[in-house]
Give the backbone structure.
Amino acid sequence: MRLDKFLKVSRLIKRRTVANEACDAGRVLVNGKTAKASVKVKPGDVIEIQFGTRAVKVEVLDLQETTKKEEAKELFRYI
């Protein structure tokens, strides 16, 4: 699954366009490397997102095309 879509489906970032912009600005890392929005993510990958002065680091646990709000937290875990 594409990185921008995963960020939206998992609700780490609310909109896919915002996820695209964050990737283009170099604020998203996958496994320690700067990632474009089109990078394919898989379970076990570590994603780090820079939100201003705050950084969020998560591990991908599962991939799904769509999820309900309550189930979105099961797609990743915070590190």
